[in-house]
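User: Hi! I'm working on a homework problem where we have to compare a predicted structure to a textbook description. Could you give me the structure for the chain below?
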Amino acid sequence: MSLVRPQSQEEQVGRLVLAGALVLFLPALPFGGYLLYPFTILTTWFHEMGHGLAAMATGNDFQQLVILPDGSGVATSDLDHDTGALTRALIAMGGPLGPSVVGAGLIMASSRHRWWRPVLLAMAAALALSTLIWVRSLTGWLVLPALAAGLAWLAWQPRAAWQLFALQFLGVLAALSMFHDWDYLFSNAAVIGGQPMLSDTGAIAAELWLPYWFWAAVIVGLSGLMVGASLKFALNREG
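Assistant: Happy to help. Predicted structure tokens:
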């Protein structure tokens, strides 16, 4: 006899811990990296869409998104010639904050049954539409529509437990992806697609005062606050 009530706080904690364990330990297993590869591409999409949406939110033009086979990516925006330093810094910050924003949102959505299907369908639609509008690479064209189809399929499955775990797994995956990019976050520059360029935090430091590692710490702090708040929200809501 189980002592854990369905949809109780204990079950929520257990599912979130299981999702975190899969994200952390699956790459260490044989073929685990291959199983996680589509989701690595997904976290890159979160990151690069963060740049693009930040550009749009500040009145600039998001032009294209390129995702490379190694899981790196580049978002290109057309900035006005008079775009200020603060705006450029916000666009650069939108990338590393993107996965944490999405992860926090998915974890919060997992706490309410009526949100599960709409959120999965919204993610599927966003993946499909962004592929049509902005994605300009073979890796993105192959992986993102497949993920969109999978999420749409899950959303219409009668087994709600699958929908719940999908939201929790993707939420934890997005939230923890920052640690996968830790070296990049705390670097001033990087090589992406064979081209040397400033890292996101290096780009922020180039526009504002204080060094890149300070902005990396700010991003880590903001991400921690968002994910922590989402966990508190999810674990205080049952059903």
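For your comparison, note the following. Residues 32-57 form the longest helix (26 residues). Residues 1-6 have pLDDT under 50 and may be disordered. Good luck with the assignment!
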